[in-house]
Amino acid sequence: MRFAEKKTANLQLMILIYTHKITPRVRYIFKHIFTRTLLVAIDFTTKVEEFVAHNGPKLTYTKNPLGNEFFVKSNALLFEQGVNDLEINMHKWDNVPCFFKLGAKSSIPFDVFAASFYLISRYEEYLPHVKDVHSRYTAEESLAYKHGFLEKPVVDIWAYKLLAKLQEKYPDFKVQKRAYEFISTIDIDNAYAYKYKSLIRTAGGFLIDVFKFRLLSFWNRFAVITRIKKDPLYTFDKILSFKNKYKTKHIFFCSVGDYTTFDTNVPASKRKYKLLIKNLADYTNIGLHPSYFTMQNATLLKKEKNRLENITNFPIHKSRQHYLRFSLPETYQQLIDLEITEDYSMGYASNVGFRASTCTPFYFYDLDFEIQTPLKVFPFALMDTTLNDYLKITPKQSLGKIRDLKNEVKAVNGVFITLFHNESLSDHLRWKGWSRLYESMLKIGIS
Prior knowledge:
By secondary structure, the chain is α/β, with parallel strands linked by helices. The chain has 15 helices and 15 strands. The chain starts with a helix and ends with a helix.
């Protein structure tokens, strides 16, 4: 290989990062931004002579530049341990919100690495905050909501703007781009509306229908139980037909917990429900949908994981919390202990958008132990119940919201993840008029 060719190859391979101290936080966020988001290899050094001798693109992350290299003045956050109440002042980089502003010497106007770490580590969720009625961290508490960037994956936007600045400095530096990806996820909170419920629950349902004069509900319950009509929530054949038609990646999250006020699925012991799970597992991916009270109950979580694995006869590595109830870091620590490697809970029930300000899957960084964990977090952008129950918008209005979010993700070559329930395809009760939205959403997702 000639020297010129070798030099170009090197420019494509690696950026050398100089910093005065390589902490776990520094290594974590630089790897996320460069390696996972931009597909750029990096290496670190604390030796000035090694950095100066490097002929390829290089970046200094410390208090002062060493020469005329690309320089980002470091905020203290990535060199600290634990959680402190930080003062956050918002600014703009062009038209993009940012914080941790820097001085004129820096090649960009803010510490993109510290700001990205703050958002992706969910640093703010460790700070004192007001929880909702389900003990969840709310969107309203977040920096993204308060400053109007919840519906923008700003960490990914920052990463690509950083790349553009680096390429201005090093014009020969070439990178390959990620491919946009779409994943449709389905939560099975209730596989059936009326079938396979216990005798007590069925009788109670009839009594409540009579007491509240819900004649249509009484008739539907009777018609389904006597096999005059199909159960309205059994929409799985329709979902699988859409999967085959549009060649989309699907994941079903199955609830197998015991009955509670918040967990109302049919018992996992029911033969028909077991067969449904096995059938879904033959055609697509299966994950666990841990019940309401597993948020801080490791024993219950383990029981449900074992129960689902006994049905599928293979290990379960994917999970999404019911009601999106999780507490950091406890819930994620429990998942890690049970060898769950992928979590899909990162989003809000009340609002669409990007809870961690990214549409790129990332590894959970445990601020308690200051380590990157093996748990990969897949943030979703929207949920059907958010559109219907919280935002109270129509299916037509929902399509516009879905399209806007998908465009934000595609602009940064991210992963667009949606959360629907089998119930929202049913046209049953509160889902009347919503059954066509799912297929329309799939068309938007793959376009």
